[in-house]
Write a structure and sequence with these properties.
It comes from Cryptotermes secundus. This is PX domain-containing protein. Pfam families: PX. It is found in: Early endosome membrane. With about 325 residues, this protein is mainly α. Among the domains are: about 110 residues, Phox-like domain (PX Domain), CATH 3.30.1520; about 120 residues. Helices cover about 55% and strands about 10% of the residues. It has 14 helices and 5 strands. The strands form 2 sheets. Strands 3-4-5 form a 3-stranded antiparallel beta sheet, sandwiched between helices. Strands 1-2 form a two-stranded antiparallel ribbon. A hairpin with a 2-residue loop joins strand 1 and strand 2. Helix 1 packs across helix 10, helix 10 packs across helix 12 and helix 12 packs antiparallel against helix 13. The longest helix has 21 residues. About 25% of the residues are buried.
């Protein structure tokens, strides 16, 4: 009977995990050329870019020239392969910055069918160059086979140059993910989430949580494609998302991501991550109470931690703890 109950609990957790990760904006690509233009009167750079994906024509998973194909979730997620693809490039000519080309990178985890919910980031040549040079300094022996697109004095905006650079950027990222040390490097983490994290922080400091949430969610989903579910960078990204969602009075996503964070923390042993566990539990106690859910199991967990000598009273909120971490 105990084995049966354990099996049922594991199945329930798997279903909840799938629900939390699958319930996201549909950004599947249809046919045609992508175009990304910042929304008028929206001052967010990365945020507006991410929201613009909602305007892209959507396809259907499993649809081909012969008509729709019945594809199950299990088939979609079988034998996943991480893929970086430059899907668009646009010329940016704002008064506040030098004219340049911004490249949109789509990050997918494809299986039998393409990943229906890719993550997207936008980067320029100098961002890729910084990533390449940082990795070459730190891991010279792992970067000898990589050829990086050279700078040109004229013609930066020519289609041929943009196409050649796009291919070079894809090759660089594909190489990085094949080497564990490169994949785990702080250089790559900064490249993938640094810009969005800085902008999200600015929005949170301005108490515009609705603007920060899309940035944090995109970063979480991107890192979750690159790393395991309980990888430190993934867990921190998830905690940032939970903290921001719980502060926004409008969003309905706080409970879903808080549930996901609690489940993942059950198997976490990383000391740096455990410092956020008590604030997460305390946040969930308040959230469960506001939603009419039973908060007693969470309170019992906090009491157990207290008996084991872990500080529970007088802790920072999860939001404040993460904001302090990101300042360092």
């Amino acid at each position: 009977m105990e084995i049966c109950n354990t099996s049922k609990q594991e199945t329930a957790n798997e279903e909840l995990e799938k629900l939390a990760l699958d319930d996201e904006p549909d950004t599947r690509l249809g046919q045609g050329t992508l175009s990304f233009n910042e929304v008028p009167e929206v001052h967010s750079q990365a945020g507006a870019h991410i929201r613009s994906w909602a305007k892209v024509q959507r396809g259907t998973v499993g649809e081909d020239s012969a008509g729709p194909v019945d594809v199950t979730n299990g088939e979609i997620m079988r034998r996943p392969v991480l893929k970086f693809e430059v899907v668009s490039a646009r010329t940016v000519d704002h008064n506040s910055e030098k004219k340049h080309v911004a490249y949109t990178i789509m990050v997918r985890k494809d299986a039998i069918q393409p990943d229906p919910n890719p993550a997207v980031i936008e980067r320029r040549y100098s961002d890729f160059l910084e990533l390449y040079e940082s990795l070459r300094r730190e891991f010279p022996s792992l970067m000898t086979s990589v050829t990086f697109p050279k700078k040109v004095l004229l013609g930066n905006f020519a289609p041929g140059v943009i196409s050649e650079r796009s291919a070079g950027f894809e090759a660089l990222l594909e190489h990085i993910i094949t080497e564990d040390r490169l994949r785990e490097s702080s250089c790559l983490l900064s490249f993938l989430q640094g810009r969005e994290q800085r902008e999200a922080r600015q929005w949170m400091e301005a108490q515009r949580y609705d603007q920060a949430i899309p940035l944090l969610e995109n970063s979480f989903r991107l890192l979750n494609k690159l790393h395991t579910d309980r990888h430190p960078s993934v867990m921190l990204a998830l905690c940032r998302l939970v903290a921001c969602c719980s502060t926004d009075p409008v969003t309905t996503s706080a409970e879903r991501f808080a549930d996901l964070a609690l489940r993942r923390y059950e198997a976490v042993s990383d000391a740096d991550l455990l410092q956020f566990y008590v604030p997460l539990l305390q946040l969930c106690v308040r959230l469960w109470w506001s939603l009419g859910r039973d908060k007693r199991p969470l309170e019992a967990r906090l009491e157990d931690l207290k008996r084991r000598g872990i500080k529970v009273d007088g802790c920072r909120t999860l939001f404040d703890a993460l904001m302090a971490l990101d300042k360092n």
